[in-house]
Write a structure and sequence with these properties.
Elements: H1 2-24, H2 34-37, H3 60-67, E1 75-77, E2 94-97, E3 104-107, E4 112-114, E5 118-121, E6 129-131, E7 138-140, E8 143-145, H4 152-155, E9 157-158, E10 164-166, H5 173-176, E11 180-188, H6 189-195, E12 217-218, H7 220-229, E13 240-244, H8 253-256, H9 261-273, E14 277-278, H10 280-288, E15 293-295, E16 345-350, E17 360-362, E18 366-368
Parallel strand pairs: 11-13, 12-14, 13-15
Antiparallel strand pairs: 1-18, 2-5, 3-4, 6-17, 7-8, 9-10, 11-16, 16-18
Helix pairs in contact: 7-10
């Protein structure tokens, strides 16, 4: 009898422990089951796909269409500087030091010395970056759902002591295997809004939205209007779309090195206020055209993350043009392409670093034109 009672007690403890574990894995806060109800998974690339819209790069016709835009055989890089005083979302930061000064040497008859750098940062989520499939998801009743219906805690790679050391099948190395080669279409929202008289002729950037309908929100109608104004044919599957809102000018590369700390703080403060960008209708418009990715200032829009056509995206901050902002994309890029006066098309080339299990990747993408 005593042994039977002990066994029952042990079983009860184990059941309570499993129940506590289940509770611990239920995230507190808002829950949305849209990914389940609207069947965001499997994606168009198949239930086992891990690369998302990077699959467009496997289409030879897409690459040929992109390369056909190169007319002048010129190239520009479009990445932002990485620096400890650059704007960043929330508590993220970039801290770099040169250890040893120099790190090593001198060695041998040639008295060789060398320098290394030590970087502490959210490596995939700072300055110019690509958001991998493990970065953004939705908290559903089944758990945090990421790209292609994967529940994040089912995906985690665990190391010593159970510590999460990677995103497993959601790691950025999967789109990194393919990279992106696509036609880039640059939409100049600043010029378009000026042409409509909704922002001053001397404005350098769209205003940060404070309410729905503000001119800092770019709608689907605005996208169609920009295409017409710029003489561009409609956006095609596999394209990447860059939106010029002007806000990146506050820390553009041609200014940043000459700015003092007070000016850089002002740029960070502006960054923190919110941002102009695509509203929900524009996001749905782009997703319906099966684009490969978007490029613009940090978190203003999120492309096609969790399934199907992927029209579940974030709008301009702090206000979208139809719904409160969402946050659903594995890919984004900052850009300076709109500063060119030539044809706003070219070939965009980018390959995320193959960081196994990472949520994203830094980099310095290129445009050929």
């Amino acid at each position: 009898m005593r042994h039977s009672m002990i066994r029952k007690a042990v079983l009860t403890v184990l059941l309570l422990a499993f129940a506590a574990l289940a509770v611990a894995q239920t995230l507190k806060g808002p829950v949305s089951d849209k990914p389940l109800d609207e069947k965001w998974a499997p994606s168009k690339w198949g239930a086992n796909d891990r690369a998302g819209s990077a699959n467009h790069t496997k289409n030879a016709a897409n690459i040929a269409r992109a390369l056909a835009t190169i007319k002048q055989n010129k190239a520009i890089t479009i990445g932002k500087y990485y620096h400890r005083e650059a704007p960043a979302f929330g508590p993220r930061g970039w801290q770099m030091s040169i250890p040893g000064t120099p790190t090593g040497g001198p060695f041998g008859k040639n008295a060789l010395i060398y320098h290394d750098e030590l970087v502490t940062t959210e490596i995939g989520q700072i300055q110019t970056q690509f958001d991998g499939p493990g970065h953004i998801g939705v908290n559903t009743s089944k758990g945090p759902m990421m790209y292609n219906g994967v529940i994040s805690w089912d995906a985690y790679e665990h190391g010593a002591g159970g510590r999460v050391v990677g995103m497993g099948p959601l790691g950025v190395e999967h789109p990194g295997e393919l990279g992106f080669v696509c036609r880039v279409v640059v939409l100049d929202a600043v010029a378009y809004k000026k042409s409509k008289g909704v922002i001053p002729a001397g404005a350098e950037m769209l205003p940060i939205p404070t309410k729905p309908g503000d001119p800092g929100i770019v709608t689907a109608d605005d996208v169609r209007g920009m295409l017409q104004m710029q003489g561009l044919r409609d956006i095609a599957p596999g394209d990447c779309v860059a939106l010029h809102t002007g806000q990146g000018n506050s820390w553009s590369n041609d200014r940043y090195k000459s700015m003092n700390s007070a000016q850089r703080k002002a740029a960070r403060d502006l960054f923190d206020q919110g941002e102009p960008g695509f509203g929900l209708s524009a996001c749905e418009y782009l997703a319906a055209r099966d684009i490969a990715l978007t490029m613009l200032r940090y978190v203003g829009v999120r492309r096609a993350a969790l399934g199907g056509a992927g029209a579940r995206l974030r709008g301009a901050l702090p206000h979208g043009d139809a719904d409160p902002p969402g946050h659903l994309e594995p890919g984004e890029r900052r850009h300076q392409v709109a500063r060119r006066q030539e044809d706003p098309r070219g070939t965009f080339i980018w390959a995320p670093l193959r960081i196994i299990g990472a949520t994203g990747s830094p980099g310095n993408p290129m445009v050929l034109y």
